[in-house]
Amino acid sequence: MRTFKRAHHMKITSDFDGGNIRVIDSKNPDNIRLNIEKDNASDFYQWFYYRVDGAQGRHLNMKLENAGEAAFTGGWENYSACASYDDETWFRVPTQYADGVLNILHNPSHDTVWYAYFAPYPMARHHALIKEHAAKDGVTHSVLGKTLDGQNLDLLHVAGGDKTIWVDGRQHPGETMAQWWMEGFLGRLTDSDDDVAQELLKHASFYIVPNMNPDGGVRGFLLKSLQRGDNGRYSWRFDLQGLARDYALICEAPKVARTITVPTLFIKGGDSDYLQGDDESLIRGICKNPTLREITGAGHWLHAEKPGLFTRVVLDFIRDAGVADTDGPVSADTSA
After folding, report:
1. 290-295 and 264-269: which strand pairing?
2. 133 and 209 both lie in a single domain
3. Exposed e or buried b for every residue in 193-209, given b needs 16+ CB within 10 A?
4. pLDDT by residue for the chain (336 residues), tens digit each?
5. Residue pair 238/143 in contact by the 8 Å Cβ criterion
6. 162, 221: one domain
7. What number of other Cβ atoms are within 10 A of residue 220's Cβ?
8. Which residues face 278 on adjacent strands?
9. Are residues 233 and 126 part of one domain?
10. Which residue in 82, 102, 136, 227 is deepest, having the highest Cβ count within 10 Å?
């Protein structure tokens, strides 16, 4: 019979791809005190990801004491943290949120266990994803540019019909579920036996950026305008004088070198003020064949607030040759 020797001391670490945690006190397994590290030069944080060694046979009560000041505290309601014994297969563990503290409760059956806000999507898996699909027929890989940490910003072009659809994920790198969705989406879109995918590709070509912020993903938070100083440390790089001088120019509508003639879909949330009334004339001046839709009862995150309606509008646009006649609002009572 195989026996396991439990480590005398527990150790909690996050010094790996995407790791994020700060240990306050880990002496008592039933009262492990932790904090989520803030983003660089920012008060925002939500993502956590760490490993516990010497955990087998212990009752762990891990308290994330600053969860009450996270970017989206509503995300802790009815939430269960993710755990894994191999950093690949993930499951949920009991989690409680009260008085601004997130309590993760677990009795590990293995000595080493990882915990995370959601199942991580490491860069090694991203590279494998790009390699797999770049080798497929009808798919072209290119690099949009280099990030500030020197990583590639990868683009996959899946050739198809005349319409153009851009799909990108992980502008917020802590939202790893977006890249898991990307993996499934790419798998279906490039499957020659998938009838739905083949029908879509008859009408549209896809430009796909699976990870818009690889630097933030590796570092375990959201990064913008990062630079490395002579001392090796990272800091913000905002040209405040330039922003103040050219603010009016920055706010102007972009100058487009040529008119967009292919059918183009614009979807606005009815409760969002991102698109104003005057913007319609600008859109129609740039795009000769636009379709303007509004989803009532949704804000800026209309795809998350009304996913069914959003999906229906997009699919109708792709399938319908007469999209120019479908301008206007859409609600749950609007027939497809």
Report:
1. parallel
2. yes
3. eeeebeebbebbbbbbb
4. 444 444 458 999 999 999 999 999 999 999 999 999 988 767 788 999 999 999 999 999 999 999 999 988 988 999 999 999 999 999 999 999 999 999 999 999 999 999 999 999 999 999 999 999 999 999 999 999 888 788 899 999 999 999 899 999 988 888 899 999 999 999 999 999 999 999 999 999 999 999 999 988 888 755 445 555 677 665 655 666 777 787 777 777 667 777 888 888 889 888 888 777 788 888 888 888 888 899 998 887 787 788 888 888 888 888 774 444 445 565 544 433
5. no
6. yes
7. 27
8. none
9. yes
10. 102
Domain limit, last residue, from 74, 95, 116: 116
Residue 243 falls within a domain, yes or no? no
Residue 303 inside a domain? The answer is yes
Which pTM does this prediction carry? 0.69
In a domain, 225, yes or no: yes
Cα 265 → chain centroid: 22
Q: What's the per-residue H, E or C state across 100-138?
A: CEEEEEECCCCCEEEEECCCCCCHHHHHHHHHHHHCCCC
Do 69 and 21 lie in a common domain?
yes
151 and 112 both lie in a single domain: no
In a domain, 2, yes or no: no
Q: Which domain holds residue 65?
A: 11-116
Q: Taking Cα atoms as reference points, which of 174, 191, 204, 190 lies closest to residue 141? A: 190
Same domain, 112 and 17: yes
Task: With both helix axes pointing from N to C terminus, report the angle between 195-203 and 307-319 in degrees, rounded to the nearest 10.
Answer: 60
Instruction: Indicate if 160 and 86 belong to the same structural domain.
Output: no
The whole-angstrom separation of Cα 206 and Cα 154 is 14
Between the two ends of the chain, the Cα-to-Cα distance in Å is 63
CATH number for the domain including 66?
2.60.40.3120
- Taking every pair of Cα atoms in the chain, the longest distance, rounded to a whole number of angstroms, is 76
Tell me whether residue 261 is exposed, middle or buried, using C-beta atoms within 10 angstroms of its C-beta: 0 to 12, 13 to 18, 19 or more: exposed
Whether the CB-CB separation of 138 and 190 falls below 8 Å is answered with yes
Which two three-digit tokens encode residue 49?
A: 């990801």
Task: Using the 3D structure, point to which of 95, 116, 137 is the last residue of a domain.
Answer: 116
**Distance between CA atoms of 19 and 10, rounded to whole angstroms?**
18
